[in-house]
Design brief:
Elements (H helix, E strand, L loop, with lengths): L1 H24 E9 L8 E8 L7 E7 L6 E4 L1 E6 L2 E5 L10 E8 L2 E9 L20 H9 L17 H5 L3 E7 L7 H8 L7 H11 L18 E4 L1 H4 L5 H17 L1
Antiparallel strand pairs: 1-2, 2-6, 3-4, 3-7, 5-6, 7-8, 9-10
Helix pairs in contact: 4-5, 5-7
Length: about 260
């Protein structure tokens, strides 16, 4: 009995350690907003904070029904900004209890890491705008559907991508610094620059943080360092943040994540 108890405790420790590793890889995932209604093709904006920039390591589906009648619709993924992704699919969503399923590829298999009710998310009529990144490689989706996925991850070819020039643009405006002479809060700085940058206060905060992470203690958005030198975000960075409701939820998700860790 003692040996059995030791084995059980060891297994619990291993599982706890493994789960903590997965949590470190994806520290936050939640549905920011949806751009579709019942009986329409899915389109979602998802708060997605992960140490992996490559979305090929993840698999996104919407599950409808339950038990033997359950079906999953594969979604394609693309980045809107470092903290937000766009998911879309071709089929119709007819189940009001449908759930977004997020999986990560580990040990030659797909491991589910999140299950989120789709229709609990707020409806937004603003379509997602792709400003950087690349689409999720469809070859990996085919592997998942046929059960042939293996540990060799297909490469993503970006040489001929129309997004290549955007991805190579500098993230800051040369020789431009944000005025922070009075050691203001991030909110106050962003509020002052939002109109000049043609964005909202949340978008301005996210843009400042995105291009100045070293100006924040432990790279946490609520810990702006005193006397920190802040670079001006480039126009294509600011263009990512053009929806105040989406940007607010993205900021709140990022802040909540940083407050916990």
């Amino acid at each position: 009995m003692k040996k059995l108890g030791f084995m059980i405790n060891s297994l619990i420790l291993i599982m706890t350690f493994y789960c903590s590793m997965l949590s470190a890889e994806v520290s936050h995932v939640s549905i920011n907003s949806r751009q579709f209604a019942i009986n329409q093709a899915p389109s979602l904006k998802v708060n997605f904070i992960s140490k992996h920039k490559d979305l090929n390591q993840f698999y996104f589906t919407i599950k409808q029904g339950s038990g033997q009648h359950a079906v999953e619709l594969t979604l394609t993924a693309s980045r809107i900004n470092p903290y937000l992704i766009h998911l879309q699919g071709d089929g119709l969503i007819m189940d009001r209890q449908a759930k977004l399923i997020v999986s990560i590829f580990r040990n030659a298999d797909w491991l589910q890491i999140a299950s989120l009710p789709v229709f609990d998310a707020p409806l937004s009529n603003n379509a997602a705008e792709l400003t950087s990144g690349v689409n999720l490689d469809n070859s990996l989706l085919k592997q998942k559907k046929t059960g042939m996925a293996n540990s060799v991850k297909p490469s993503v070819a970006i040489e001929d991508s129309p997004l290549k020039k955007v991805m190579q643009l500098p993230t800051i405006v040369p020789d431009c610094l944000v005025n922070n002479s009075d050691n203001e809060t991030l909110w106050k700085i962003a509020n002052r620059y939002k109109l000049q940058w043609n964005t909202n206060v949340y978008g301005a905060m996210l843009a400042i943080f995105e291009v100045n992470t070293k100006a924040f203690s432990k790279q946490r958005i609520h810990l702006l360092l005193k006397d920190a030198s802040l670079n001006c975000p480039a126009p294509h960075i600011l263009a990512q943040y053009n929806d105040v409701s989406v940007d607010r939820r993205t900021f709140e998700a990022l802040q909540a994540k940083h407050l916990v860790f």
